Amino acid sequence: MEYLIKQYALEPGAWEIQYIEEYFGEFPRRKTADEIITRLRDRESLILMAEAPLPDDPTGALVPVSYKIVHEIRSDESVPKLRDLVSRLHGSVRFDDRRILYSWIGGTRRDWRGQGHFRALTEESEVWAMGAGFEEVVVKVKNRYYDMRAVLASLQFNVVKHEPHPKDTNESKIYLSKLLPAEIARGHRSIRTVVYAE
Ligand SMILES: CC(C)(COP(=O)(O)OP(=O)(O)OC[C@H]1O[C@@H](n2cnc3c(N)ncnc32)[C@H](O)[C@@H]1OP(=O)(O)O)[C@@H](O)C(=O)NCCC(=O)NCCS
Questions:
Q1: Residue 44: count of CB within 10 angstroms of its CB
Q2: Alpha-carbon gap, residue 189 to 169, rounded angstroms
Q3: Pocket test for ligand 1, best of 66, 69, 113, 151 (most atoms within 8 A of CB)
Q4: Residue 56, class by beta-carbon neighbours within 10 Å (0-12 exposed, 13-18 middle, 19+ buried)?
Q5: Helix, strand, coil percentages, rounded to 5, for the chain
Q6: DSSP state, 30?
Q7: For residue 161, which of 85, 117, 153, 173 sits 20 to 30 Å off, Cα-Cα?
Q8: Is 92 in the pocket of ligand 1 (CB under 6 A)?
Q9: Minimal CA–CA distance to 143: which of 178, 114, 168?
Q10: Using a 6 Å cutoff on CB, does residue 151 contact ligand 1?
């Protein structure tokens, strides 16, 4: 299978993601276009979306089925949430003179899960990240998101920190990372076509 990926500029990408997030039931608080724009406005980032045909649609029209946003994080963050993230990563991820990427949000619409769309987006983001000089990509996940943890394991992310919740182990957080050496693309499995969204 060949995956069709669209790379979006910030504003159209943010609105498209606000729209697609309506189709995810997992997270209690969905991201709005405004939140996405505010976070990404002054930092390097990548917005990717995979498109696929609706099943049984004779016109073969394509719809967005999976998305992913990654963005840079720096040791001198001023945004409170990111400053907090960087401080929690202290001792687990080195920031000195290294470019670190944060895998922020992503998901695949239920009917299209398990078809490799998220792998394709992740692999494409890794190619972009290596080209942009990033050395490591980090992601955080709550203990109770077992599916996401399994996906991150399949994508070869390594656990770098476990942060227990004082009362509820389901709410404990796991931080994972992946080093991005040049040879990583050789291990990629998806065949992809990337276009730039208008
Ligand atoms: C997690 C999620 C994004 C996966 O998307 P997807 O398009 O179904 O993932 P893919 O089909 O590309 O699968 C990627 C890898 O994870 C594995 N995988 C996917 N879903 C899995 C599951 N529920 N349990 C175990 N492994 C799973 C696949 O087998 C694949 O590995 P492989 O290529 O070695 O076979 C999707 O299930 C989702 O949207 N979940 C809710 C939101 C979420 O958790 N977002 C955060 C993502 S980090």
A1: 16
A2: 34
A3: 151
A4: exposed
A5: 35, 30, 35
A6: P
A7: 117
A8: no
A9: 168
A10: yes
CA of 107 to the centre of ligand 1 (A): 8
Summarised one tens digit per residue, pLDDT across range 43-89 is 999 999 999 998 888 888 999 999 999 999 999 999 999 999 999 99
> For tokens 């389901």, what's the residue?
170
Q: What is the mean pLDDT of residues 138-160?
A: 96
Looking at residues 117-128, what average pLDDT do you find?
Answer: 98
| Minimum CA distance residue for ligand 1 atom 9 | 118
- C-alpha distances in Å from residue 85, one per residue of 88, 121, 138, 148, 163: 5, 24, 10, 19, 12
Q: How far apart are CA 124 and CA 41, in angstroms?
A: 22
* Average of per-residue pLDDT across 149-177: 97
- CA 132 – CA 158 distance, rounded (Å): 22
DSSP-derived secondary structure letter, 185? G
Q: Closest ligand 1 atom to the C-alpha of 189? A: 33
pLDDT at position 186 is 84
Q: Is domain 2-196 classified as CATH 3.30.565.10?
A: no
- Average pLDDT estimate for 147-165: 97
